[in-house]
Design brief:
124 residues; alpha+beta; globular
């Protein structure tokens, strides 16, 4: 279920989770995803890693934001999300982190499977 994924050419994996998530979800290089975020951040006069910029980029790439249902268990993890979403491409917001789920597998530089989803984006 966990797929180690780090397209950063320098091997860094701190503070670039939105870049990695967009790379995985949209099959882009790290440089391309980073430039998209920087361009949108410049346009919005905001940092490329801010939620406002990341959300605007995801919307521009065809993703739609959804809330998690109210009836999920309190200890609902990213692994649970993957089990409940075996098909499709999702970008899932965790506490201070964001990760891509494709067909029930999550792509991340580290194993974030025990983290708790807050909301998600889905692209049809």
């Amino acid at each position: 279920m966990f797929r180690r994924f780090n397209p950063n050419s320098c091997g860094a994996y701190v503070d670039d989770c939105s870049v990695r998530a967009i790379c995985a979800a949209c099959d882009l290089t790290w440089d391309s995803a980073y430039n998209i975020l920087c361009d949108k951040g410049f346009y919005m006069c905001n940092m490329p890693s801010s939620k406002a910029v990341v959300h605007a980029v995801l919307r521009s790439l065809g993703f739609h934001q959804f809330a998690l249902p109210n009836d999920i268990p309190d200890k609902y993890t990213l692994i649970d999300f993957c089990l409940d979403h075996p098909r499709g491409t999702f970008i899932v917001a965790l506490d201070n982190h964001i990760v891509t789920v494709i067909n029930g597998e999550y792509y991340d530089a580290w194993n974030s499977g025990d983290e708790y989803p807050l909301y998600y984006f889905y692209k049809e």
